[in-house]
Amino acid sequence: MSGKEKNELIIALTEHFKVAYNVSCSEAKIWSIIILETNKNGITFEEIIHKTGIGKSTVSTGLKKLLSKKHILFETKDGQRKKYFQPSSMNKLFIKIQEEVNSEIDLVDKVIFYTETKKEEFPEHISVDLEIYKECLTEIKIKIAQILMSEML
Asked: What are the tens digits of pLDDT across the range 66-76?
């Protein structure tokens, strides 16, 4: 991946996190950098400052908020005070998606019920489309449940 493509991915991920997880722009950028720029050991505070271009105080506050929301975690190496930040398990993201899918399925069920009570007023393709959409959501729900179960084993 080229540097330009990576920067575009960081921007896209940052925008996604701002909207999907209601975090500030700086928190979203820090989180994106931690995900995309970390290695096996993690990424240090100083590296985050360098890669984001965000000031020390803002990075410190952003890291504290991301840690409190359990979006990231850190480790220290033997005998060092330096913290190495890493993204937390993807389980939290999967659980959030699962909740959204469940909510969407509930809403689709209500729309299906409503359209069935007024069948003669709705074109048939709407009911068919809603059923197909519900099937797709259900498949996603099952797949996420499988992933979360495999993580627990």
From this structure: 999 889 999 99
